[in-house]
Design a protein that fits this description.
globular; alpha/beta
């Protein structure tokens, strides 16, 4: 069996979606190779045939965002890689596969060291360039990508995007599709949900949910503009959840109008898992009005909750969906988004939307199981 080291500093006990992705990959790979996983100190995997190295973020994962947390986190990131280097010297891994890089200037140094100690160095580029200020990272990512033997992306469209930015490295790019969420809990306790929220939701016939990190490329301001212009008198409710992680003036200037709108509920920051699961279960459609994206975990969240999707046709989204069967795909502009929302409200009742959500769940499970992905990873990549 191949001896593989998987490095994932983003796999921790708090980031549910990231850990679910990691769990699915690790669960399937563990039966097919001799696997070691380097992850955060609070990450746990039960009953898996792997060696677990908890080396990242001993203190900072439990701290609130602040300058001191950022400094501590940087030092802990360095410390984690020092521990990995010691592990690599003691073990001869045929493959080292990195899932996330969190500090590019340092990562260049780390990757060059790892490359000298393995036959094959693999990196999953979840995004070709970062969502925020990605163009500024072009040069340092060139240094990183140039050191990697095989670069994995989550779809044909992302591969083409990579080749546009880095044509000289196109022969290193391979497709490894994103897999379905592994054991993502959809349960919640109704007794812990604010009765006012429940009552508000019961008043409407169609429920739409936007969730995830909030920044310009996610297009939330575009969705809000469309909703405030055309849908304030509709028997439909828009729910917004997610954390705003950067400056986003187009959205900021809409917040007052949002909070005064009778058919929008806005939650400031990420909601807890119990409330999110309630909202995801209550909604009819999950909305992804993105201006630009490579791939989105919202697709797999929707599949877990058996909900259909409205999404703009960006990145590799359409490769994972069947327009009109399990989703409504539109162009990334206001008029197309308006038409998609109109279709969901006026042409599809709740039963139609429920059936589309079930189709999405079946489709994702059939085509994007982690067992299939792990087999292809071993046969084609490793």
């Amino acid at each position: 069996m191949k001896k593989v080291l998987l490095i994932d500093p983003a796999a921790n006990g708090r980031w549910v979606s990231g850990s679910s992705y990691n769990n699915g990959l690790v669960n399937s790979l563990s039966s097919k190779c001799e696997l070691t996983l380097a992850a955060a100190v609070d990450y746990e995997m039960m009953d898996r045939n792997i060696k677990l190295v908890n080396c990242f973020f001993r203190h900072s994962n439990t701290m609130k965002r602040s300058v001191s947390r950022s400094i501590i986190r940087l030092l802990e990131y360095i410390r984690g890689y020092i521990e990995i280097f010691d592990n690599v010297k003691r073990n001869r891994y045929e493959v080292i596969h990195i899932q996330w890089l969190l500090c590019y200037p340092l990562d260049v140094i780390f990757i060059r060291y790892l490359k000298r100690h393995t036959k094959l160095l693999v990196y999953t580029a979840h995004n070709v360039l970062p969502h925020i200020d990605g163009e500024k990272q072009y040069r340092v990512l060139m240094k990183i990508y140039s050191c990697i033997d095989k670069i994995l992306v989550h779809g044909e469209a992302i591969k083409k995007e990579f080749e546009t930015y880095y044509p000289q490295l196109s022969n290193r790019v391979w497709i490894q599709y994103h897999g379905e969420y592994f054991n993502l809990s959809t349960r919640y306790k109704s007794s812990e949900i604010d009765s006012a929220i429940c009552e508000r939701i019961r008043q409407f016939n169609h429920i739409f949910l936007f969730s995830g990190n909030i920044f310009y490329n996610k297009g939330l301001d575009m969705l809000i503009d469309v909703w405030l212009t055309y849908f304030t008198d509709q028997d439909a409710l828009l729910i917004i959840t997610g954390e705003q992680t950067s400056s986003y003036k187009e959205y900021d200037k809409k917040k007052k109008e949002i909070d005064q709108c009778d058919n929008i509920i806005r939650f400031e920051g990420f909601v807890n898992t119990n409330l999110f699961n309630f909202l995801a279960d209550a909604c009819d459609v999950m909305v992804m009005p993105y201006r630009h994206a490579s791939m989105s975990a919202v697709i797999f969240t929707a599949a877990c909750f058996k909900k259909t999707i409205i999404t703009t046709n960006v990145g590799a989204m359409s490769e994972y969906l069947e327009n009109g069967t399990d989703s409504i795909i539109c162009d990334p502009d206001k008029e197309s988004l308006r038409n998609a929302l109109c279709t969901a409200i006026h042409s599809l009742d709740r039963e139609n939307l429920r059936e589309m959500g079930e189709q999405l769940s079946e489709h994702i499970h059939k085509k994007y199981s982690w067992d299939r992905i792990a087999e292809q990873l071993l046969e084609r990549i490793y």
